[in-house]
Amino acid sequence: EDQVTQSPEALRLQEGESSSLNCSYTVSGLRGLFWYRQDPGKGPEFLFTLYSAGEEKEKERLKATLTKKESFLHITAPKPEDSATYLCASGATSGSRLTFGEGTQLTVNP
Amino acid sequence: NAGVTQTPKFQVLKTGQSMTLQCAQDMNHEYMSWYRQDPGMGLRLIHYSVGAGITDQGEVPNGYNVSRSTTEDFPLRLLSAAPSQTSVYFCASSPRGSTEAYTFGSGTRLTVV
Questions:
Q1: CA distance A16 to chain B (A)
Q2: How do residues B21-75 score in pLDDT, each as one tens digit?
Q3: Are residues B93 and B101 in contact, defined by beta-carbon separation less than 8 angstroms?
């Protein structure tokens, strides 16, 4: 059974204080590892897809990386507007279904 | 381009009532899914469809029904609402056979009393 575990559950940072969010996954044949951002009262918004170990993708202050067992979302010099819940999901080669982790709630204080 | 549209945004039901949550997408995506999101449990797959006329069960299908008569629409039916179905429901779509991520709707917050 595919599993995705995210840590920590919640993270509070000061503005400018860099950190990383972790996503551990167990999947039979990884099709893609997806990162989403979710703001309160809204649907998840797509950020990145990573397909193979060693791959990295960047967008503004966010950088996602992938190993054979984990993915990290690095946040460099965060701003209060980066506060949101960040979701990780894995997709298997056997189909189109995504398995989601429980998310990390990030709060960035000014 | 509206993306994925869900209606209603909020709904309160009494136990035993039935209702349909609507989902429509205008991106010509083949794949569509319904998820529910509960505190501490993440997003869980209810039902999904890989094309018109084809549906399958996800992780938590009991108490829900779906049909896919067109590419655009994927309604979710609650047959007899129970308090355990109080949740936020998200519809999502993705291009067929693609490794691209799903696009999500803005959600329906359902309360069953």
A1: 28
A2: 999 999 999 999 999 999 888 899 999 998 999 999 999 999 999 999 999 999 9
A3: no
